[in-house]
Write a structure and sequence with these properties.
This protein has 9 helices and 11 strands. The chain has 250 residues and is of the alpha+beta class. It folds into 2 domains: 113 residues, Translation, Eukaryotic Peptide Chain Release Factor Subunit 1, Chain A (2-Layer Sandwich); 125 residues, Nucleotidyltransferase, domain 5, CATH 3.30.420. The chain is elongated, with a radius of gyration of 22 Å.
Length: 250
């Protein structure tokens, strides 16, 4: 198995190349909530039994299950016996369970790629944040900020405990400030999806603190963007990462 990350343009080119390939394809789209169960119950008839067996084996490999959990968007499967066997984890959720036997059907994936999305982005590290809204690929709202947080104190004794309490309070204050900014910046938009990036350890306490994120929990992607800094540049570049698809070939 091989995997590669493709930008939106790269995935369009991949689909065009696949459409030019010859072969008797089976195409499967599976919504996130039904991912493994739907494939386990797959029956394609005697002619395509080998296809079904290959697809089931592929779906239950560790790299696929781990990647599917990370993306949380379901899967598009294009499979034939000429070596063109692919699982695509798209950047945004598959919205329909569908099987096309004997044909390559890229229409649902192309439709998803062409849809207009309004995406909220929250990048946070301890001491800095960048919040933005992308509408159809354009950054239409943004806010960056900082907050002072003491580093750990290692001298021991009461002094260490005092600094630890101070640092903990500073972190709570910082999370409250970020939560307020999220509600201010996101409140005026009908978001389709929300992505978090930065320090993974901050995501859970921020979700507990931020009532807005709690109310939109189903919109929050399980995929955490890998960024080192929470600043304007990282925010502007985040859309390229958000819109990447993962293509697994077998």
């Amino acid at each position: 198995m091989q995997s590669r990350s493709l930008t939106k343009g790269g995935l369009y080119r991949f689909l065009s190349t696949l459409e030019a390939a010859a072969g008797d394809f089976v195409t499967i789209y599976v919504e996130p909530a039904y991912f493994s169960d739907y494939i386990d119950g797959l029956s394609l008839g005697p002619r395509y039994a080998a296809y079904a067996d290959g697809i089931k084996a592929a779906v239950h490999t560790d790299p696929v299950t781990q990647s599917a959990r990370k993306y949380g968007t379901g899967v598009a499967i294009f499979w034939n016996q000429a070596g063109n066997n692919y699982l695509v984890l798209p950047p945004f959720p598959v919205t329909e369970n569908k099987v096309s036997v004997g044909e390559l059907n890229t229409s649902l994936l192309r439709e998803a790629l062409g849809k207009r999305y309004v995406v909220g982005v929250v990048l946070v590290t301890w001491g800095s944040y960048a919040i933005g809204v992308f509408d159809a690929g354009n950054l239409v709202e943004s806010k960056t900020g900082t907050g002072f947080i003491h580093k750990e104190h290692r001298k021991g004794g009461r002094s260490e405990k005092r600094f630890a309490r101070r640092t903990e309070e500073q972190k709570k204050d910082f999370l409250r400030r970020v939560s307020t900014r999220i509600e201010e910046r996101f409140g005026g938009f009908a978001l389709d999806h929300i992505f978090f990036g930065g320090n993974k350890l901050i995501s859970k306490p921020l979700l507990r603190e931020c009532r807005y994120l709690q109310s939109k929990a189903l919109m929050v992607s399980p995929r955490v963007l890998d960024v080192r800094y929470a600043d304007r540049e990282a925010l502007a570049n985040s859309l390229a990462e958000i819109t990447k698809s993962l293509v697994l070939s077998f």
